[in-house]
Structures are given as structure tokens and as C-alpha cells.
């Protein structure tokens, strides 16, 4: 674990993470590091409700709109670039504030995730073709006993993956999995948890507001730039599939809007569940949107009084 201080803001979509991040950055001399995978693409600003330059209020932001719509970007890529950026922010005597709802990106950035330096090599695995399932399992047990105990001997696919991981990285997969739950940088975690009914209402309002701002036209243009294909990573953003279905005449505009609202509600629920299961020591704040400003002030006070930022 590195002796670096990082504030992490988590919460479901439409919970106010962006607004809070600006307040924290202004109070604690911080810079914001986006960890929402959808906002890394340039050209879908409305679809992702991306913070505008004016809304940034002079606070420096990282990892916004730096990818072309047809680009691919891995979690491993983000881990390397994100950690380097955190070091640069700290070197400038500022506080890194990580903001976003993409759980795997957050974990890769701040936990001890190790990614294989090599891709899958199925040709190399051919050497095990003559091994029975039992023989293959016994071979895994020699190099990674803990992993073998989690896998049934007839689950050949998982056994091969564990063996391949060991051969490529020279460490057991079970060791890597265990380390992934330890912190590379221990953050101060702020969790925003709006009232459920209010959150659902806010999500529906947001979809309508984005539609009024030109969401359908933006997605139509992005779809053309992606060669009319939904296979690109950028096209996985909520709204793209629904609007493309409308453009193809498969559903009405109203049906597309309703589908986007539903998809966002499902996504918000998944985010909350994921964060609660994956992250510990979260300072959760349940609130009504009417009291959001009061909650933000309490969060600032709690962070000051926690002594996290002054601890060595």
C-alpha cells in the first residue's frame, strides 16, 4: 500500500457525485479523476451527462473525452494511466479525487489488481489435450493448491485458465485473487445513497432532459462514426442500443425513452449492490435531494475531522 491520500466518491448514477466532487476539490485543493468508463469517449457528452467545462469551475479533470468513439480501452490501460496521474497530482501537492460509477475501474486503480502481461494462448494449452480431467486437476494442485480446492476436477476450462495464469505470471492465480481485495492505495470512501424513489424520479427526469438537449441526434451521429455497428465499446453506453432501435424503426421514440429510463434504474441498482459487496469502510450518506447541500457540508466536515488527510 502506498502512502498516498485519495478521496473516492461512489454511488449510483444521478446521485450527485459530480457536484460533490467539485465542492471537495474547491475545499481541499483537489483535482478530479474520472473513473466512469462511459465518460472517457469523445462524442457522447449528452448520453453520459458529462460535466461541462463551465461546470468544472476551473477544477482540473482527468480522463474525460480522450478516446475516439471507435477506440478500445482496457481496465489494465486505465490502471497504468490512472496511477501515473495520481502520482502527478500528488507531486503537485494536490488531492486526487476519484469520481465514478465503474466499479471494476475503481478496483483496478486502487486495489492490488494484477493483469496478465500476455493474452490467451490456446495453442500453448494444446499440450494438455491428452491429460484427463483428473490428471489436469492434480497438476494444478501442485502449483496452486488453493485454487484447485475451489474447482471441481471436471471443470476443465477453469483448471486450464488457472494453469495458464500460473505459467504466464509465475504466481498462483489464488494469490492474485487474494491480493485483489487488498488496497494499493487506501482511499477515504464517500458513498452517496439517495432515497430510492427520489433516485428513480431523478433518473427519469434526467433522461427527458438529455433528450431535450439533443440526445437522439448525438447518438445517431455517433452510430454513423461507428460504421453503424453496436460492437464498439462506446456503443455499449446506455441509450445507444435503445436509440439505434428507434432509428431502425423497431420501436417508437417514447418506447426508446422508457427503455432508457428502465435501463438506468437497473444499472443504478447494480451499482449500489456492487459497491456494498466489493468495498468496505465506506462512509455512506443516505439523503433526500432536498437536503443535498446540507449533506455535502457534512461530508466536508466529516472528512476534515477524520484526520485521514493528515495521517502519515
TrEMBL record:
Functional summary from the UniProt entry: Catalyzes the transfer of a dimethylallyl group onto the adenine at position 37 in tRNAs that read codons beginning with uridine, leading to the formation of N6-(dimethylallyl)adenosine (i(6)A).
Subunit description: Monomer.
Keyword tRNA processing appears in the UniProt entry: yes
A GO molecular function held by the record: tRNA dimethylallyltransferase activity
Domain of life from the UniProt record: Bacteria
Residues noted as binding ATP in the record, renumbered to the chain: 11-18
Pfam family, one: IPPT
Protein's name according to its UniProt entry: tRNA dimethylallyltransferase
Cofactor annotation: Mg(2+)
Alphabetical UniProt keywords: ATP-binding, Magnesium, Nucleotide-binding, Transferase, tRNA processing
Catalytic activity annotation: adenosine(37) in tRNA + dimethylallyl diphosphate = N(6)-dimethylallyladenosine(37) in tRNA + diphosphate
Keyword Heme on entry: no
Record-marked site positions (Interaction with substrate tRNA): 102, 120
UniProt similarity note: Belongs to the IPP transferase family.
Binding site for substrate: 13-18
Native organism: Spiroplasma syrphidicola EA-1
EC number: 2.5.1.75
BP GO terms, sorted: tRNA modification
Amino acid at each position: 500500500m502506498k502512502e498516498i491520500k485519495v478521496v473516492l466518491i461512489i454511488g449510483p448514477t444521478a446521485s450527485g457525485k459530480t457536484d460533490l466532487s467539485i465542492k471537495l476539490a474547491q475545499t481541499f485543493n483537489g483535482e478530479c479523476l474520472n473513473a466512469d468508463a462511459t465518460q472517457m469517449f469523445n462524442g457522447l457528452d449528452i448520453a453520459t451527462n458529462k460535466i461541462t467545462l463551465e461546470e468544472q469551475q476551473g477544477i482540473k479533470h482527468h480522463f474525460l473525452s480522450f478516446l475516439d468513439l471507435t477506440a478500445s480501452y482496457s481496465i489494465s490501460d486505465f490502471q497504468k494511466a490512472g496511477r501515473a496521474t495520481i502520482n502527478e497530482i500528488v507531486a503537485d501537492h494536490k488531492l486526487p479525487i476519484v469520481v465514478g460509477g465503474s466499479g471494476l475501474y475503481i478496483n483496478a486503480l486502487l486495489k492490488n489488481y494484477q493483469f496478465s502481461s500476455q493474452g490467451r494462448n490456446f495453442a500453448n494449452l494444446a499440450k494438455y489435450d491428452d491429460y484427463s480431467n483428473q490428471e489436469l486437476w492434480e497438476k494444478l494442485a501442485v502449483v496452486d493448491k488453493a485454487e484447485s480446492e475451489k474447482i471441481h476436477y471436471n471443470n476443465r476450462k477453469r483448471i486450464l485458465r488457472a494453469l495458464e495464469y500460473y505459467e504466464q505470471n509465475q504466481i498462483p492465480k489464488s494469490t492474485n485473487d487474494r491480493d485483489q481485495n487488498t488496497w494499493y492505495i487506501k482511499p477515504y470512501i464517500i458513498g452517496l445513497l439517495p432515497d430510492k424513489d427520489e433516485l428513480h424520479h431523478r433518473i427519469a427526469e434526467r433522461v427527458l432532459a438529455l433528450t431535450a438537449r439533443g440526445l437522439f441526434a448525438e447518438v445517431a451521429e455517433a452510430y454513423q462514426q461507428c460504421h453503424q455497428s453496436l460492437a464498439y465499446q462506446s456503443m455499449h453506453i446506455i441509450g445507444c442500443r435503445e436509440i439505434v432501435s428507434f432509428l431502425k424503426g423497431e420501436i417508437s421514440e417514447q418506447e426508446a425513452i422508457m427503455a432508457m429510463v428502465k435501463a438506468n434504474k437497473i444499472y443504478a441498482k447494480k451499482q449500489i449492490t456492487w459497491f456494498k459487496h466489493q468495498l468496505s469502510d465506506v462512509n455512506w450518506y443516505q439523503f433526500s435531494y432536498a437536503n443535498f447541500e446540507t449533506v455535502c457540508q457534512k461530508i466536508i466536515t466529516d472528512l476534515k475531522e477524520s484526520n485521514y488527510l493528515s495521517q502519515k
